[in-house]
Amino acid sequence: MTMAPVQDNKERNRYELRLADDIAFIDYRRANGVVTLLHAEVPARHSGRGIGSAMVKGALELMRADGERVVPLCSFVAAYIDRHAEVQDLLARK
Q1: How far apart are CA 45 and CA 94, in angstroms?
Q2: What pLDDT, on a 0 to 100 scale, did the predictor assign at position 19?
């Protein structure tokens, strides 16, 4: 399966991962250097192939490069961050 790098579609307020024939995405809200990740979606025919994890990893890499912090309201994203200590420094402090 062919996947492009994760991209920030600022017009649609979402990170996108283009697949050969589809798009996976994470909806977000951005304010004051904090990105609140609301909902991640991978097309059903692509589920179970690691695409969601690849998309979250790519989105977090973009946030790190931009000096942003994350609030993971999406349970999938929150679980990914819980399992990966190397990205937990991106969590916005309360």
Answers
A1: 37
A2: 87
In terms of C-beta density within 10 A (0-12 exposed, 13-18 middle, 19 or more buried), how is residue 60 classed? buried
**Residue 9 structure tokens:** 């579609």
CB 55 within 8 A of CB 15: yes
Give the residue among 13, 44, 43 at the shortest CA–CA distance from 26: 13
Q: List the domains of the chain with CATH numbers.
A: 7-90 (3.40.630.30)
Instruction: Name the percent of the chain lying above pLDDT 90.
Output: 82
Please give the distance of CA 65 from its chain centroid, rounded to a whole number: 14
Query: Could you say which residues of the chain have pLDDT below 70?
Result: 1-3, 94
**Residue 62 three-state SS:** helix
- Given the structure tokens 């690849």, which residue do they identify? 54
Residue 25: name the closest of 5, 35, 39, 10 by CA.
39
Q: What is the pLDDT of residue 3?
A: 60
